Amino acid sequence: MNRRSTRIPWLVSGVAGWLAACGSASNNGLLGPGGLACHSSTDCPNDSPICASSGACVQCIADSSCTGGQVCDAVSGQCTAHCTTNADCAGGEPICAARGFCVECATNADCTSNERALCNAVSGQCVGCRADADCTRGFCDLKNAVCVDCRTTADCTAGDTCVDAACVSHCTTSADCAGGRPECLVSSQTCVECLSDADCSGDKPGCVLSRNRCDECSNDAQCEAGKTCSVADGKCR
């Protein structure tokens, strides 16, 4: 695989590059869409609050974590229903897998999103990639099951650093930066998307300082009534 340098990631997963590099890569892409890698449960959002031994944020590791009559599918780490046929399943998990749990997919044909067009047959989840060969360029970040420009700095050309799954050039001021990463984070000498909320706008008004990325929120005031901001991933929940 040739190394490459770019200031702007062509496809990112929303996790920082250091998260993509840490932990085991053997979880078969179980994080699914919008998933997060973790060191402990404090790293995980409310909808996937448990840090599993695989280093992935999941909904459950035992039936006791589930409600509403659902049970824990230990393979995917999701609360779901037991089934015998597809008729027993509905919503976002319409397929009855052979192991007796409702899942998102059984084949690629069940995946309709362009960003998650492949079915991970092990987890029953639609993913962006399962191996480097699934990516038209770059690499497959197995933790988050998406194609990225880099996983570690070793994937970049000499002098560049892997930040948030993209190879970025070093900087001393924001004048050294351009494109989707116009600000210079002087402490690490890397170009980033934002340093404060003032650098963000539109439907991503909050600067998530842990990643220096613009997202839905950086504080509760940016969320609609009844929701709070998960500062770990910049999402209103």
Class by SSE composition: mainly beta
Order of helices and strands: HEEEEEEEEEEEEEEEEEE
- Main sheet: which strands, in order across? 1-2
Strand content: 15-25%
- SS field, number of helical segments: 1
Number of strands: 18
N/C terminus separation = 39 Å
Poorly predicted regions: 1-35
Rough outline: globular
Report the biggest beta sheet as strand number plus sense, adding barrel if it closes.
Answer: 2 strands, antiparallel
Rg, nearest Å: 19 Å
> Fraction of residues in helices?
under 10%
Mean pLDDT: 80
Describe the structure.
By secondary structure, this protein is an all-beta fold. The chain has 1 helix and 18 strands. The protein has one helix at 17-21; strands at 50-51, 57-58, 71-73, 78-80, 95-96, 102-103, 118-120, 125-127, 139-141, 146-148, 161-163, 166-168, 183-185, 190-192, 206-208, 213-215, 229-230, 235-236. The strands form 9 sheets. Strands 1-2 form a two-stranded antiparallel ribbon. The longest helix is centred in the N-terminal third of the chain and has 5 residues, at 17-21. It is globular and about 60 Å long. It starts with 16 loop residues before the first helix and ends with a strand. Residues 1-35 have low confidence and may be disordered.
